[in-house]
Amino acid sequence: MSTIVDVVVADKNLSTMLRGVKAAGLENELSKTGPYTVFAPSEMAFGKLAQGQLADLLKPENKIKLTGILQQHVVEGKNNFKDFTDGQKLKTISGKELDVKVSNGTVTINGARIQGRDNDASNGVVHSLDAVLTVN
After folding, report:
1. What is the pLDDT, as a whole number, of residue 135?
2. CATH 1.10.10.60 describes domain 4-129
């Protein structure tokens, strides 16, 4: 079975996420045993960033900032779509907390809606989001 990185590579709607993972040097982390749940911003999500913000983040001198942002999209453990509960808190690999809201069959993570869901990998699962997560 494919790893999380393979799942991201195979999904053309996650090509910017893949560029970010490579620029941040997270390929090895996301290829480990895990399991991990990855909330991967879609192309549409990255398109919502301010003009020039993505290009700026992908510059080598901004690797630490990019890595921090992407780590906010990864939690330990495998969480399938049906497992999310309203009010649930998820801890990211960067130590930040994400808020889960479930309403009428829609799940949001810190306000970003899960679009594509339950893309299984040997070391976890990938869900695509309609926004880039920001965690304070």
Report:
1. 66
2. no
